[in-house]
């Protein structure tokens, strides 16, 4: 079996504050193979986005990667000098943000911005660059791409701006795209179109993706594998269909039960009791224990990492497993 494209091991990202150290990412490990889509899911504050930023060194000071490795094709990119990281960002690893305004400059045309992105990593003439940009916009479904290159971001709808951001991320045919909830702010029909197109792009180009989302329904239609995060940790991971059909961790079960599609008409939606814990004051042992219906005194101890075939989970009392 070939080595994974991305191998993340024991990643820890910390933010010192006056009240203590926030461990936003706490010992996260996972792999991503070429052409694979990994769904990274969890509630707000679970550490999903910080994990994505950490992979390409976009953690602002005073935050820092305190431990662990991020190996791209076997090379650890944690701690590389900024010029070496810049050579990787955009070319080998690209990121699509939730809000395209984080990517697009309002005072430059889309064509100018795309050409700047191309020239950041390669020498290319204006004519060849324009042809590459037109092809990239066409690839993500922008109609009349040659004319739209001369438009400004405000002349696009929200869905079209996000498509432009995706096109910029794909310009250099990267090995990996990190998509940080890129469809959250879009209406359902546009979401469905972009999800279908992104999945097709991964299949056709061999580009791997990490799809970050709080929406299990979205991830279920996108990802080959899923990693469920809680309080900075991955508490369960495995093939998407396996995890969603038969979850082992009570938190994963709670997320699934909270989906509107699960509830019968007229019934109240299920919810996970309590709130996510402060990362400054995590409970001892399993951080989900205060909200878990299966918690026992032993949950004050660190749960063991269980391996079951091609899935893993952190739980003293996993669902569906005989004692």
Structure, described:
29% of the residues lie in helices and 24% in strands. By secondary structure, the protein is of the alpha/beta class. The chain folds into two domains: 1-81 and 176-263 and 270-280, P-loop containing nucleotide triphosphate hydrolases (Rossmann fold), CATH 3.40.50; 102-171, no CATH class. The strands form two sheets. It has an eight-stranded mixed β-sheet, sandwiched between helices. A four-stranded antiparallel β-sheet has the order 2-1-4-5. Strand 7, helix 7 (188-205) and strand 8 (208-213) form a beta-alpha-beta unit. Helix 3 crosses helix 4 (126-139). The longest helix has 18 residues, at 188-205. The mean pLDDT is 89.
| Whole-number tally of structural domains | 2
CATH superfamily caption of the largest domain: P-loop containing nucleotide triphosphate hydrolases
**Number of DSSP strands?**
12
Taking the alpha carbons of the first and last residues, their distance comes to 33 Å
The name of the CATH topology of the largest domain is Rossmann fold
> What is the CATH class of the largest domain?
Alpha Beta
Shape: globular
Mean pLDDT: 89
User: What fraction of residues sit in β-strands?
Assistant: 15-25%
Strand neighbour order, sheet with most strands: 6-7-8-3-9-10-12-11
């Amino acid at each position: 079996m070939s080595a994974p494209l991305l191998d993340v091991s024991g990643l820890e990202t910390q933010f010192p504050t006056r009240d203590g150290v926030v461990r936003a990412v706490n010992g996260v490990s996972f792999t991503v193979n070429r052409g694979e889509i990994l769904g990274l899911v969890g509630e707000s504050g679970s550490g999903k986005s910080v994990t994505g930023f950490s992979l390409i060194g976009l953690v602002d000071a005073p935050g820092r990667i305190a431990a662990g490795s991020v190996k791209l094709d076997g090379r650890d990119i944690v701690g590389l000098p900024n010029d070496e990281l810049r050579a990787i960002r955009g070319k080998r690893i690209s990121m699509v943000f939730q809000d395209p305004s984080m990517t697009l400059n309002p005072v430059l045309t889309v064509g100018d911005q795309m050409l700047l992105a191309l020239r950041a990593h390669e020498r290319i003439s204006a004519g060849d660059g324009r042809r590459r940009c037109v092809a990239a916009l066409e690839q993500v479904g922008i109609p009349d791409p040659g004319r739209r290159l001369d438009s400004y971001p405000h002349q696009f709808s929200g869905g079209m701006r996000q498509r432009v951001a995706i096109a910029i991320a794909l310009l250099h045919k990267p090995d990996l795209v990190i998509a940080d909830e890129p469809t959250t702010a879009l209406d359902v029909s546009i979401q469905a179109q972009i999800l279908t197109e992104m999945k097709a792009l991964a299949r056709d180009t061999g580009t791997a993706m990490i799809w970050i989302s709080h929406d299990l329904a979205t991830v279920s239609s996108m990802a080959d594998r899923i990693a469920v995060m809680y309080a900075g940790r991955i508490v369960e991971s495995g093939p998407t269909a396996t995890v969603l059909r038969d979850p082992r961790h009570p938190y994963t079960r709670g997320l699934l039960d909270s989906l509107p599609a699960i509830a019968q008409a007229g019934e109240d939606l299920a919810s996970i009791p309590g709130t996510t814990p402060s990362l400054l004051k995590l409970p001892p042992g399993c951080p989900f224990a205060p909200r878990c219906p299966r918690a026992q005194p032993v949950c004050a101890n660190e749960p063991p990492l269980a391996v079951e075939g091609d899935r893993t989970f952190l739980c003293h009392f996993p669902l569906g497993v005989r004692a």
